[in-house]
Write a structure and sequence with these properties.
323 residues, alpha/beta, TIM Barrel, seven-stranded parallel beta sheet, two-stranded antiparallel sheet, 12 helices, 40% helix, binds NADP nicotinamide-adenine-dinucleotide phosphate
Length: 323
């Protein structure tokens, strides 16, 4: 059976020029010929930064464009064997200069694992931590959950507190505002993960004017282009993108397909980098938060945050290529 690692190695070879015919017509220029040096390159090339940064409109603060999610990947409880690779996932992340990590109290043990690993490596001051008011009703339940998040994350402040999936939105957002006024939270936001919710989310963005909106966006889920992105530009709201890989499903969709010939022109040598660069080629996107439990995939994802993004022609070509 072909593993994801085998597949990425194949994709990397493809990027060096070995199987690139299908989308050559979409290239801005002819693809360069494969060189022996490139062909002999190890499958895992080092990350060469620095990561690009974009501004949060409400504060002017710049944050790195590649962040990280924790759903699934950090839901490991106290299992040492599962925590070990996450230490390296975190190390590679901060070593690259990345900082934005998104979690939630309802991602089972993710806040606990993240809090322990961040504390153990003394990384709190280098991170922008985002969590959520999630699945709670009423202000007291929200307040209790926030207190628990601080305890589990082993911190006294949260950089971004988001109301999760439009549940009890007005009450929880009022609480988030109060916590911001008290200095326990720096920024506040709203999240969702499905195109069907964009209209309601847009209404709440207009009414509540959060600092951030977190929304799904990928090469196969482009609804945000019509509603959320234009509104975020108009209102000056930062955009965090979740599910750029459709929870990993996009890798199955491109399995066995060669990378487009033009990938090398934008410095991408994997499908992951192309999918993330697709998201970041929307200038309104402030940060994208792919989730991974594997150091190798973390390095791969970070490489999408440097150099040029896709132009309009390459964006359309990628949509066709992923299918
Ligand atoms: N409503 C909400 O607010 C909401 C909803 C959904 C998600 N989120 C946030 O957004 C984050 C990201 O979304 P997501 O977790 O649904 O999924 P995602 O980032 O679209 O995909 C994660 C999957 O992709 C795989 N992957 C990551 N990097 C890879 C690479 N370079 N090559 C191959 N496979 C790779 C991961 O597997 P490996 O572990 O094997 O690398 C994992 O299975 C979440 O973790 C969460 O923080 C928020």
């Amino acid at each position: 059976m072909t593993t994801r690692r085998d597949f990425l190695s194949t994709a990397s070879l493809a990027a060096t020029g070995f199987a690139l015919a299908p989308l050559a017509a979409c290239s801005q220029e002819s693809p360069p010929p494969a060189s022996n040096a490139a062909a002999a390159a190890p499958a895992e090339t080092p990350f060469v930064g620095p990561l690009l940064k974009r501004k949060i409109p409400s504060t002017g603060e710049s944050i790195p464009v590649i962040g990280m999610g924790t759903s699934g990947s950090f839901e490991v409880g106290r299992d040492e064997a599962a925590r070990a690779p996450l230490r390296e996932v975190l190390k590679r992340f901060v070593d690259a200069g990345a900082s934005v990590i998104d979690t939630a109290p309802t991602y089972s043990s993710a806040e606990d694992a993240l809090g322990d690993l961040v504390t153990e490596a003394k990384l709190r001051d280098r991170l922008f931590l985002a969590t959520k008011l999630s699945g709670v009703s009423g202000i007291e339940e929200g307040r209790r959950q926030f207190g628990e998040s601080l305890r589990r994350l082993r911190t006294d402040r949260i950089d971004l507190l988001q109301v999760h999936n439009l549940r009890d939105t007005r009450v929880q957002f009022a609480l988030a505002r109060e916590l911001k006024q008290q200095g326990k939270v720096r920024l506040i936001g709203l999240t969702h993960y499905r195109d069907e919710a964009h209209a309601e989310l847009a209404d709440e963005m207009r009414a509540l004017k959060p600092d951030f909106v977190q929304i799904n966006y990928s090469v196969v889920s482009r609804g945000a282009e019509r509603t959320i992105f234009p509104l975020a530009r108009e209102l000056g709201i930062a955009v965090m993108v979740n599910r750029a890989f459709e929870d990993g499903r996009l890798f199955a969709q491109v399995k066995g397909k060669p990378l487009p010939a033009w990938a090398i022109e934008i410095g991408a040598d994997s499908w992951a980098q192309l999918l993330l660069k697709f998201v970041l080629s929307e200038a309104t996107v402030t940060v994208v938060i792919p989730a991974t439990s594997k150091p190798r995939n973390q390095s791969d994802n970070l490489k999408a945050g440097v150099g040029v993004m896709l132009d309009a022609k390459q964006r359309e070509a990628l949509v066709v290529a992923v299918g």
